[in-house]
Every structure is written in C-alpha cells, then in structure tokens.
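FYI - complex with alpha-D-glucopyranose, inputs then prediction.
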Amino acid sequence: MNIKFKIGIILVLLMATLAMQNTATAQLKAETAEQKAKRMEWWTDARFGMFIHWGLYALPARHEWVKNAERMTNEQYQKYFEEFNPDLYNPKEWARMAKEAGMKYVVLTAKHHEGFCQFDSKFTDYKSTNTPFGRDVIKEYVEALRAEGLKVGFYYSLIDWHHPDYTIDSCHPQRQESDSAYTRLNKGRDMSKYREYLKNQVRELLTNYGEISVIWFDFSFPGKNGKDHNDWGSEDLLKMVRTLQPGIIIDDRLDLKDQDGGWDFESPEQYKVEKWPTRNGKKVAWETCQTFSGSWGYYRDENTWKSTPQLLELLIESVSKGGNLLLNVGPTGRGVFDFRAQERLKSMGEWMKFNNRSIYNCTEAPAEFAAPANTLLTYNPKTKRLYVHLLSYPMGRLVLKNMADKVKYIQFLHDASEIKFQSAGGDEKNNLNIELPVIKPPVEIVVLEVILK
Ligand code: GLC
C-alpha cells in the first residue's frame, strides 16, 4: 500500500472517531431539560428498583467493607477468592423476586471496593471466572433480567482495594497515619495506570452486554488523601459512557456535581429526604438507596432489619417527594437472597400487586392538595388521580380540606370499592368528609384513589 493512501486511511479513521466523540459531547452538554426528562422517563415512571451487592465479601458475611474494617491485606483476603463457589446462583430467581416485589430495574455490583470482578474482564485475573465458580456472573444476570422485562443496571466501584496501581488513601484497608508513610507505600503505584484499567473495564461492561440502562459509579472523596474526578478521569470516562450507551442513566458520584451533564440523579444514601431535593432552585431527579438492614453485602449476624410497613412507607414517601427507591439485597455465598430479604420482598410485592397504581408514574402532589395528618400523597399527572396513603388507619372519618370542588369519585385502591363523601357544609363547605369502614381492610397501608374532576 502506498504511504499516502495509508495516511489517508488513518486520517479518515481519526476524523470519524473525533466526530463520534464530538457528537456525544455535544449531546451531553446540549441536552435540554425536556430531553433529559424524556431520556429518564422510564426511570422516573418506574420509581422502584433493586440494588444487589454481591462479591467475595458474601463469604466473611460481615459487611462489604470487611476488608477495610479489619485492615486485611490482599493475601489475607485471598481465601475468599479461593472459596468463592455460589452453587445456588440462579439469577432467574433473583429477577423473578425483583419483579414480583414490583421493582422495574436492578443494579448489580460488577465490582465493589474490594476490586473483585463479577465479569470476565480481559484486564484482570481477579474475576469470578477464575474462582472455583468459574462463571461470568454479569452475563447470566443480564440475560435473566431481560427475560423478565427488567431494566439492567451496573454498579462499578471507582475505589479499588486490590489493584496494585491504586494509591493507598484514607479509605483504604492499608490507610496510614502520616504523610511520609503514604509516600513510602505509594511509591511505584501509578494512578494513571489504574485510570486506564477503570476505563477499559467500564468499556467492556458497556460493550459486551447489550443495552445497559443505569450505571452507578461509587464514590469520590475529595480532599487530603482522598480521591476526586481527576483521579478517576471522570469527564473522559463519562464521555465514553455516553458514547457507548447514549440512553444510559448515571448517578452523581463521579465528583462532577458542578458540571452540566455530569450526573443524572442525586443519590441520598440511607436517609429519607426532608423535601424534594433541589439544585440552583430547581427540583432534581433523585433516588434514595437503602438497605433492609445496616449492611449492603450479606451480613449474617446483623439484626436491625426494617419491617415491611417501614419499607412501604419509605417507598411511598420517596414517591411523594418525587423520588425513586433502590432497595438493596445482599445475596449469600451460596448465591441466594437472605431469607429475611425474601420475606420482605414478598410482602412488599403483595402490597404492590394491588396498590402499584399509586407508585408507578406518580410523583409529588400539586401544592393545592394538603395531606391530612398521618397520610402521604402521591399524584399521577397523566390520569389526574390523587392517592391518599393512610399510614395509620383513621376511625370512621377522614377530612380532605379544600377539595369539594375538585373531586369526582373516590375508591379504595386495593379493591375498587366506592368510598362515600360529602361536603362538610357551612363555613367548611369546600372540605370533604370521607366515610371509611370502621374495620381496616386487610392491606398493610390502605390507599384511597381520588379521581379528580
Ligand atoms: C457506600 C458504600 C458502599 C455501598 C454504597 C451504596 O458508598 O461505600 O459499600 O456500595 O454506599 O450506595
């Protein structure tokens, strides 16, 4: 081939690559609020997803941070790699349970802070396919989810306590007291190599498994002996992610919070928000991630499990403030969901079966509707239906203030049975008195469906 021709081909290829990247960048920055809302619509409609934390830490069964908490070295942690053999792993079961609970999407740890990869990466030996288990966990998970019509999400830890080039920091199992100790230990470690590794792995995850709907990066901790967007190469990474999967939804932990297009949703962890979170005065998309108990990974002896009513309230309250709930399960070292999680998923599913209309496609109710005491309101803007969740079941009467002119019909959501109402009359004639049966129906949290005029 003559040299001019070769150079010509190289130039064309280069221009094509640049053009592709530019489109992605332009798209990222130029997206209007409406376009973003459209891209995220399936997610805001879904409201309820499952988080799954599953890695080698399922074996010690005492928190996914066990390597850090007990300051284990790679050598000490190696026994879990050698014993990893979850013979009962059946993601079809996982997908079925998520779906029956009413969840619409699932996010699984492809790699957690321990550095172990649940997929057959070309860039490491520290992966499920090299354990006695020998299988690509992610591949089977993706297939099982798709078969159930669930959206597929990956969690990928930015932090890595196993990689030899990842510098020791304040979050690391080998964290130090003095600057000189850090300097000594980090000699020879090269974050630019780790950055490349991270990017290569994310490329694999977003190339080899078809359409991926959510990616959850975790997490940045800027400051002294911390790590921020420069350490991860966040901007560059994000551009690649958007190029590979234009529709994907991304959390807010890449330390690009001030950047336009640097994140899609806020991720309040393990607490209920006071009100719908805002940024520069505008309401933002958000998802709270929560555990059933105090740990994300399987923790055999942890006993602070939330009850079903508490969990339902968490879900309803999130929707009542315009947000999503990502509820976490930590499967055991055999590959099955903790029996306590199974119980709760089942009861939540029973409630969802009859009441999901107050969750899916719903959001915060317009300000004109005031929630009576001990209730939470959600609202479906398309069908114009208001949902009143009775957290404690009232005796006989409930009053809806200033609504007599707005309501057409009211029914219990779970059985579509009519609920009678009338104007309170006199000075309060725009208030509605609602007559409820004395006995609470056999539903964990009873919901009134109010059909508006
Ligand atoms: C925290 C923890 C982590 C967990 C995550 C879920 O950042 O480090 O273990 O995966 O929260 O949001």
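The pocket of alpha-D-glucopyranose is lined by residues 53, 64-65, 218-219, 269, 289, 296 (CB under 6 Å). The chain has two domains: 34-358, 375-452.
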